[in-house]
Design brief:
The protein has six helices and six strands; from the N terminus they run H-H-E-E-E-E-H-E-E-H-H-H. The protein is α+β, with helices and mostly antiparallel strands. It has a domain of 146 residues.
Length: 214
């Protein structure tokens, strides 16, 4: 939804999907992160992978790439949890793996914040931040879950459910990222974007024909 509302509708309302080199590269990046059997503990850090999450508030469910638990016994109860079979208090944050570099828009931050909201509901805690790991730069980027980002997630979620309940398909809007979209051939933004003008032309033509018949 944050990237392209029409793309979301094509996938989730019309059930359309196509692969391209970017989606395949993305799957490759997620291969290790999505393996639930590669959980590990190193020192004071516990890492779990491919974690199912759900938010009743947002009406969303999915799978988080990585959830990290960092031991910190100084944290308050609302900021940490206890882990079964492990001593102390543990801070929690999500880590989402992405191909390429940081994006110019907020699509990745929105996804990560939605994961955080789900985890907050499930664990009854509050989260201030999470991380996006980009494969091309090999770096983590910190995402702060402030009120502005949370409001953005809730707004998109509400609109998503509205669109789904009505089967609403947004009109195409040609953008720079369209050529990189795996659904480009299905969406046909160039043709659809001009269909309004074509419709007006045909309507005008028919009007003139009707007058000629009179």
């Amino acid at each position: 939804m944050a990237f392209c509302e029409r793309q979301w509708a094509l996938i989730h309302i019309e059930q359309r999907w196509e692969e391209n080199v970017l989606t395949v590269e993305g799957k490759h990046v997620h291969e290790r992160a999505d393996n639930p059997f590669e959980n590990e503990t190193r020192g004071e850090t516990r890492t779990t992978r491919s974690v199912p999450i759900i938010s009743m508030k947002l009406g969303l469910q999915g799978v988080a790439d990585v959830i990290e638990y960092i031991r910190d016994d100084n944290l308050l109860g609302t900021e940490s949890i206890s882990l079964e079979g492990r001593a102390g208090r543990w801070k929690v944050w999500p880590v989402e793996y992405k191909r390429g570099r940081p994006k110019p828009d907020d699509r990745d931050a929105v996804q990560l914040c939605a994961q955080a909201i789900a985890l907050e509901e499930m664990l009854n805690i509050t989260m201030n931040e999470g991380y996006l790991y980009y494969n091309e730069t090999r770096r983590r980027e910190t995402v702060i879950f402030d009120s502005k980002l949370r409001d953005r997630v809730e707004t998109l979620s509400t609109k998503m459910h509205w669109m789904a309940s009505r089967g609403f398909m947004p009109a195409p809007k040609k953008e720079k990222h369209c050529l990189r979209c795996s659904l480009y051939e299905i969406c046909q933004p160039d043709w659809n974007a001009s269909s309004g003008a074509v419709g007006k032309y045909l309507a005008k033509l028919l009007t003139h024909e009707d007058k000629d018949l009179e």
